[in-house]
Specification:
CATH superfamily: P-loop containing nucleotide triphosphate hydrolases
Low-confidence stretches: none
Largest sheet: 6 strands, mixed
Shape: globular
Radius of gyration: 22 Å
CATH class: Alpha Beta
Order of helices and strands: HEHEHEHHEHHEHHHEHH
Number of helices: 12
Structural class: alpha/beta
Number of domains: 1
CATH topology: Rossmann fold
Number of strands: 6
Distance between the termini: 50 Å
Oligomer: single chain
Bound molecules: adenosine-5'-triphosphate, magnesium ion
CATH architecture: 3-Layer(aba) Sandwich
């Protein structure tokens, strides 16, 4: 990959104030017109990522939280699978957040995700996240009714309060060494329909089809508005959103890989320095092993 930030910065939102989702083309592929070229670049990116992850793990001062949000069939699962394919599973964990359980509904809306934050030196991936609280819950406000909140807490400012809580929480994470990067895989309504139809036509993809997804599609415009609003309210220099064009999966993978590489490269990661005392212990251990080998022939 030439320079990772060249690809990623083009899709990064650090100041959301005037953000308009309709200005972002889901079928954008920059100057790539060739899937094979993109796949070669992705393969190089995956290697680079593996090396950076080793260093992140050894350095053990930072953690990286990657949040993925999207409409159904935008390619969250495939992106996570391909981009992270080269990295050491010990340093990475994926959490998927679905309908909250009754235990989760007994707590504030940041509780369940907080428990799954990455340790130092690790990469944590959230496949959906607390952003569902200003997406699906905003599109279906009756879900608020299940959250055991007093009516005085769910007035007209409830969404504003949630954006504030999220922005404050991410600021807190950043200040404490957890770097947050957020990816909205921006698929078009037309492409989503084609992917749903493919799932119906192909028996091997049938299992991926859910009639609930088609029901949610009926709320497309409300979701787009909710995405636009949350990107406006929660994009910062420290924890930006990437609005990733997702009509071409091969391109969205390059953008996501580039963004992660650029982020890790900005962290000034270092392998721990070996002290003189440690060097002496290494020399001692070598002597012992060599003596053993001689003794046993
Ligand atoms: P896939 O379909 O690829 O398995 P998915 O992420 O779409 O992955 P589903 O089980 O289909 O998983 O959907 C999870 C559902 O849970 C989504 O409709 C999402 O909006 C919903 N969900 C997630 N978080 C919340 C929340 N906090 N409150 C209400 N619903 C939520
Ligand atoms: Mg689904």
């Amino acid at each position: 990959m030439s320079k990772a930030s060249d690809f990623a910065d083009r899709f990064k939102v650090t100041k959301g104030k005037n953000f308009k989702l309709k200005d972002w083309d889901p079928s954008d592929t920059l100057n790539f017109d060739d899937k094979e070229q993109a796949e070669k670049i992705l393969a190089q990116g995956v290697d680079r990522l593996a090396k950076l992850q080793d260093k992140l793990y050894a350095d053990n001062r930072w953690s990286l939280l990657l949040i993925f949000q999207a409409m159904d069939a935008a390619g969250k699962d495939g992106t996570i699978k391909h981009v992270m394919s080269g990295i050491n599973p010990q340093g990475c964990q994926v959490f998927s957040f679905k309908n909250p359980s009754s235990e989760e509904l007994e707590h504030d809306f940041l509780w369940r995700t907080t428990k799954s934050l990455p340790e130092r030196g690790r990469i944590g991936i959230f496949n959906r996240s607390y952003y569902e609280e200003v997406l699906v819950v905003k599109v279906h406000p009756e879900y608020l009714g299940k959250q055991q909140l007093h009516k005085s807490l769910i007035g007209k400012d409830v969404w504003k309060h949630r954006y504030e809580s999220i922005a404050d929480f991410e600021k807190h994470l950043t200040r404490n060494g957890t770097i947050v990067r957020k990816f909205f895989l921006n698929v078009s309504k037309k492409e989503q329909k084609e992917r749903f139809l493919k799932r119906l036509d192909d028996p091997e993809r049938n299992w991926k089809f859910s009639d609930a997804d088609v029901a949610e599609r009926q709320h497309w415009d409300a979701y787009q508005d909710a995405y636009q609003e949350l990107i406006r309210e929660t994009s910062t220099k420290e924890s930006p959103w990437y609005v990733v064009p997702a009509d071409h999966k091969w391109f969205s993978r390059v953008v996501v890989a580039s963004a992660i590489i650029a982020t890790l490269e900005s962290l000034d990661l270092e392998f721990p320095v070996v002290t003189e005392a440690q060097k002496a212990r290494v020399a001692e251990a070598r002597k012992l092993l060599e003596a053993e080998a001689k003794g046993k022939g």
